[in-house]
Design goal:
Blueprint (H helix, E strand, L loop, with lengths): L1 H21 L11 H11 L3 H34 L1 H14 L8 H7 L4 H25 L3 H9 L4 H39 L5 H10 L4 H29 L12
Helix pairs in contact: 2-10, 3-4, 3-6, 3-8, 3-9, 6-8, 7-8, 8-9, 8-10, 9-10
Amino acid sequence: MRIVRNLVGLLGFLLLWEVVVRAGLVNQNDLPPPTVVFARLGELLGDTEFVRDVIASVLAWAIALVISIAIAVPAGLLLGSIGWLRDATRVVVEFLRPIPSVALIPLVLILIGGGPESKIALAVYAAVWPILFNTIYALSEMDPLLTETARTYGTPKSRILTSVALPHAAPFVFTGIRMSAAISLILVISTEFLAGAKLGIGQFILEASSGENRMDLVLAGTVVAGVLGFLVNEGLERLGRRLFRWSTADEGAAA
């Protein structure tokens, strides 16, 4: 039923869009109707260069997400379990966290250059925070009896982190990963667009909009980006429901 409702809503939106444009309420050159956009999209999916752009964006997104997890989960476990370390780094973290990643594009281009490393670095910067704070939040909500029991049996602190704290925090960490997956995809494509990457969906949209102002191509590329974001979020949400059926954690608590 959920899928049916989603499809009905999507079809209704597309129909309204088509009617508005065909009725002349909007200039077709500025906003092509969905029939034109999807026809162009069908052509693009058979274009090797466009497929290469999509692969470049997806690959950069996947690398950024893996790096973010590798950084944020261990850091979150340390900050969440060592009070003095969390207090010592609080000012630095709270200073860095609100900085928009796109504002760092000029700095990253100077330090790293305009290759794929720049979009990966910016995506990592943006994606680290949801995972980090969800991990810290999970540890703050953990029942102290769990760790005290482990200490009573002589379990080393490092073992407590991996065998007690991490399993408890896993649903919260996964929620952070799902949030970061969407954020990192947005940053990858935005950086490609704003910094003029050699490959990627953002680069394709930039060329289509700055050359002959082909809004049909711009919207077709945007649709691909939206579909990728939907598939990533939907896939991770379904995986989370399967992995953590036992969890009653409020997924929005640490957001």
